[in-house]
Amino acid sequence: xxxxxxxxxxxxxxxxxxxxxxxxxxxxxxxxxxxxxxxxxxxxxxxxxxxxxxxxxxxxxxxxxxxxxxxxx
Length: 73
Known about the structure:
The chain is built from four helices and no strands. By secondary structure, it is mainly α.
């Protein structure tokens, strides 16, 4: 009796499928820099939301997030 198995991509969550479309990074340093950039961007966005999405300086949110991420790896 042969059981047909589904392919891994057929049932994989969407995020896994999207991950396969990400660009290749030539080395570990490039990958780590990209990950740090994403963390800083997410935290800066969080700070903006905490301020009520008000007008202000995105540069200040970015610098605050950058400082926080680099001081608390």
